[in-house]
Amino acid sequence: MTWARVGRLMLALAVASAGCSEARARVQPPEAPSARAAVAGSDSVVFAGGCFWGVQAVFQHVKGVQRAVSGYAGGTSVTADYETVSSGRTGHAESVKVVFDPAQVSYGELLTVFFTVAHDPTQLDAQGPDVGSQYRSAVFYRTDAQRAAALAYVTQLDSAHTYRRPIVTQLAPLQAFYAAEDYHQDYFTKHPDEPYIVYNDAPKVAHLQRRFPALYVPYVPR
Asked: Catalytic residue at 20?
């Protein structure tokens, strides 16, 4: 964790103590259509929702996810490293590539987890204590079908007036995904007592277990 991130964490703790977040869902979010495939296989999608530590941890605890990898999407290979991406000028977003078996968990179920558990889709170029375009909300889709499903779900959430503010999630075609440095992988599991993890990320995993117990599974590092 950088000292800048420590400072932002302290600010977030002070803000949190003052009351509820303005972005908290005002009604129970609807779930996306969740038809699963008839035959086991492998598919993938890339989600960006703030610091990749927590997003990776959430999806590592989802049944049917074969692996979740922290990394960068939206920029080029030349700038796909943590220090450069942290400048906020690379076009990259901290992202997580989710590889899943569509017979065990559908793309719709992953969208539901992403929008209702993994992050706050109403924060523009920010997430919690982290600020900058590298922390933007985005779905980097692989196919037109993935884009259509994500767009339909955003429309459904907006129509239900789920949040106090509009959803700002970017839908963009995936050009490339670059895995982050080794020390960023499994960060939640390796550093469970770090204040940033305890305050920002552990509640997300706990929320997943409470809200979607049928989808929740323990994570065992490979």
From this structure: no
